[in-house]
User: Fold this.
Amino acid sequence: MILVMAGTSDARELAVRIQSAGYPLLATVVTDSAAKSLSEVGVPVITGRLPEQALAGLIAERGVTVLVDATHPFAEEASRNAMAAARATGVPYVRYEREQGRYEGHPRLTFVDDYEQAAELAAAKRGVVFLATGSKTLSIFTERLIGLPGTTLVARMLPRKDNMEKCEQLGVEQKNIVAMQGPFSKEMNQAFYRHYGVNVLITKESGQVGAVEEKLSAALELEIDTIVIGRPQLDYGVVYSDFDGVLEELRKLQELH
Assistant:
């Protein structure tokens, strides 16, 4: 049994590829919408966040022989839990992480190491700040930007009830919430930037599949200062950025057993 921690669109494609190669497979995802997309293509799936002990229990209960961590590049906690659970149960851990984007140097493009640095830099620039990093770290930005003179925070995130409640609690005005599910084209991103009069864009280095290129090119063409948060630096061990690499690793591990 191969356990695939999925959730992103490319991770779901990988799960389908693994199952199509003949491996018994179980996928885990966080959201109901992700579970539905896997169920529709015949992939067995369970929904919910799994801390280390719960994940280790699932591995033992289902007789998992390999854990494939295909979570989002910024799902640091999930990956740490996956590696710890794999060590605790003695099963091989394989990381799939989408390839990083290739960005040319641009005077309006700045890379930072974390969310706090991004928030501080945006606070120094001021103006209309368009936040495209999701809801999980929203408080880091509202603490520094809400109420700052000459600054407006516009937040784009998934149209979920808990996200809207979080925005209300943290002081993001309803008119400054973009509640939509991407991915968004370059043209659509530019329409958002023009509509709000954006001066600063904050995004994550999620890779080409994460539509980062569309956000960046849209902003830089409009001469918008763009802050990109780099990925967490974890020692994954065995890691691939392509499906074929993962499948070849699975084949090798099966031969060992």
